[in-house]
UniProtKB/TrEMBL annotation:
Highest taxon above the source species: Bacteria
Transmembrane segments: 277-299, 319-336, 348-365, 371-392, 404-427
Keyword Transmembrane listed: yes
Keywords for the protein's UniProt record, in alphabetical order: Membrane, Transmembrane, Transmembrane helix
Similarity-based family: Belongs to the GerABKA family.
InterPro entries, sorted: Spore_Ger, UPF0353/GerABKA_families
The protein, known as: Spore germination protein
Cellular component GO terms held in the UniProt record: membrane
GO biological process: spore germination
Organism listed in the record: Cohnella xylanilytica
Amino acid sequence: MESRFAGCGDLEIRPWRFGPNSELPAFSVCFDTLVRTNAKKELAETLRSFVFQDADAANTAEEAIRRLNDRGASSTPAKPIDRFDLAVQEVLDGQIVVFFEGWSCALGFSALEVEQRQASEPITEPSVHGPHVSTIESIDSNIGVIRNLLKSSKLKFVFRTAGEDTRRRIAYGYMDGIVQPETLAEFEKRVERIGGEEILETSYLEEWIGDSLYSPFPQVRYTERPDTAVASLLGGKIIALVEGSPSILICPGRFLEFFMASEDYYYRPIYSTLIRWLRVAAFLIALMLPSTYIALSTFHSELIPTVLLLAILNTREGIPFPALVEALIMEFFFELLREAGIRLPRPIGSAVSIVGALVIGQAAIQSQIASPVMVIVVALTGIASFALPQYNMAIALRILRFPLMLLAATFGGLGIMAGVILVYLHLATLRSLGQPYLAAPTPQEVRRLRDAFIVLPRRALLRSSRNRRPNKEPMREKSMP
């Protein structure tokens, strides 16, 4: 053990003695930075008083395990370890492993204790109504919160270990009887491909689960809200969690689902429907507003009202660049400010972003590098991308915006039309876990399409979900105190 963990300053090897007259040697091995201090004290007191009644019992591990468990040496039962490589792995997993003279096996005691941050309000998905609890970096805590919200025997969780060095625990959950069997089988087949690859964060799974890695559109969703994970499970989705990551991966992902948020069902349906249509408008603005302005100002000025056209020409007087170069310069500055605001410390990040945008925008107008209309177009485009619930969908729009701008500057409205058709064809052929990315307008998908564009009352959604479920669990009555 000393040779295997050579150079590890936090390794603790402690000698013991056992047997009828305490003449047989033993020693325990653990990492002082991984185990609880109280667990070491409890185990030490138990091992000091661990004396067999006869010499024969001193050589039987089964009797020792029974006696140690009866004395409460650990919060979990002791388990025998009969291979050296397993003993090394148990030490790395935060266990106390005890070796006894004359035994062909060691004993492992669970004592892992790693500091975790407390559950707080979701950072990436803030909400006005609904739960304000987010997931944390502990996979056991996250699964416990989900099970507390979804108390059903149909909820299944499967655990795996990935990586030869990190040995990260991976868990995926689903609702038995609600998830489609072929979707679950495809997911499990892709998870099997991970093998010994290192998985450090939940987003690493997307590379193994996604169908098209080079598509700008995301095929999975992420959340830090347990209520969103529960709603996805009830909708037949599969969720995946990774030890050390607070994000929950939800798959398969469909295009319309990226415009939905769990908070939509916490408001009145008419207001939630308005917000959802507002997100659709934000999607179109973030994707097409710069290219549309370039096409209108360069090729189709006759489509602009005369008064507005004169105002645009007046603001563009003295601008040395064409509309495309002007838009690319301002988009570059905006993306630079966005990334700077994300990477900077939080107390100064927002201030730098706001001040930088105001200073650069005003300086660009005064130096006649960009026109006021272009500054407004770029600002509206950026604000619209922030209105989407899923950040990875906003990244896709940031990527597609530039090819559309080039097509608009080259072919005008015809180029925009060709670009939109190509994007639609790509979406129509895209799949997520074998399922179509765009919801097809078939009779089976009418209800889902109806809820995608118009938020239905909860009673209608619950009635539809009950009709789809093959097995219904009777409601259990609880007596009032």
